[in-house]
Design goal:
Layout (H helix, E strand, L loop, with lengths): L2 H18 L7 H18 L3 H8 L4 H26 L2 H4 L1 H19 L3 H36 L2 H4 L1 H19 L3 H15 L49 E2 L2 E3 L10 H6 L10 H7 L18 E3 L7 E2 L2 E2 L3
Parallel strand pairs: 1-4, 2-5
Antiparallel strand pairs: 2-3
Helix pairs in contact: 1-2, 1-4, 2-3, 4-6, 4-7, 6-7, 7-9, 7-10, 9-10
Length: 321
């Protein structure tokens, strides 16, 4: 093999390693690259150019970089899917979760088959599919932080920061509805940033618990013997018909000319099919409303939980066609 060409390949490897050296000293894949570099350099110094060629064949700089990149992206995809699984992602978005799980299997299969470019594509699909759920988590965290600040009137002590935070939350919800999940996440993060230094004043608390003055119960103890007749535990087999699965969560939509409201949502056939049952939704979701006492103040992007009111089966999130 041409000596000059071998030298160029070695330089590519060394250059690639120098790029990653600062961040991945403890990474197993990076250590493999170091070992390959050392072995190739030793063959080269001894003039064993054919061995260098055999070693580097199929492991040129571009291939090494692609292998390394696909390895890191596969790890990221696993972390994203684990985050979704740990936080009810399968329950809230069952279709997206199933698709991401299948793509992760494909990413691992193609990586193990040395098809690094295909593995990278599958890993990127997993990450994109999980971004939707990650954006939901950030929106919920941002809402929780604003609600926490509301409990000690943080909007009065830090009005500008509070205003910035509420505007960022509105943008996070808007971006979510536009499928701009990364932008939504960034706006939600800004909510946390704006409110991170707002804390309640610490005051000395006085125990005001009233003294229990309830009279002691002096009723004689019932000494009637306990009935020890065995209970009939024979099971009666019942066959329940298959039930349609209804959504457990609903994302409030911005519908021009016909805006979502609780009674309209309750009237949807897949919710309760009865507008008069809007109060059930209100009571179950006061914790996510900006003003819990005002059932009319709801916003696009907010996620409502739909309590079961009978024996219906509810799971997943309603996504319009």
């Amino acid at each position: 093999m041409n000596k000059k060409l071998i030298m160029i390949i070695l330089l590519i490897i060394i250059y690639s390693l120098s790029i990653w050296a600062q961040s991945y000293q403890d990474d197993p894949e990076y250590q493999k690259l170091l070992e390959l570099q050392a072995q190739a350099a030793e063959f080269y110094e001894n003039g064993e150019y054919d061995k260098v060629y055999e070693l580097l064949e199929g492991n040129s700089g571009d291939a090494l970089f692609l292998r390394y990149l696909s390895s890191k992206q596969l790890q990221t995809a696993k972390e994203y899917l684990a985050l979704a699984e740990d936080n009810k992602g399968q329950e809230m978005f069952p279709e997206e979760f199933a698709a991401a799980s299948e793509d992760l299997v494909s990413a691992e299969t193609t990586y193990n088959a040395f098809e690094y470019e295909q593995s990278l594509e599958y890993s990127n699909k997993v990450i994109q599919e999980c971004l939707k759920f990650k954006a939901v988590l950030y929106i919920l965290a941002a809402r929780d932080r604003i609600e926490e600040v509301d409990t000690f009137n943080g909007d009065e002590t830090n009005p500008q920061e509070y205003l910035n935070a509420t505007e960022s939350l509105d943008m996070a919800e808007t971006m979510f509805l536009d499928d701009e999940y990364e932008k939504s996440i960034n706006y939600s993060k800004n909510v946390i940033f704006e409110l991170e230094n707002i804390e309640p004043e610490v005051l000395a608390l006085v125990d005001t618990t009233p003294i229990d003055t309830t009279p002691i119960d002096t009723t004689p103890i019932d000494t009637t013997p306990i009935d020890t007749t065995p209970v009939d535990t024979t099971l009666v087999e019942t066959q329940e018909p298959d039930k349609a699965v209804l959504p457990k969560y609903y994302i409030i939509r911005l519908i021009p000319g016909n805006r979502d409201c609780l009674n309209q949502i309750a009237g949807y056939e897949f919710i309760y099919n009865d507008p008069e049952k809007w109060q059930i939704l209100w009571e179950a979701n006061k914790g996510v409303l900006k003003d819990p006492d005002n059932p009319h103040l709801i916003h696009p992007g907010q996620i409502l939980e739909i309590p079961a009111i009978g024996d219906e089966v509810r799971e997943g999130t309603y996504i319009p066609e």
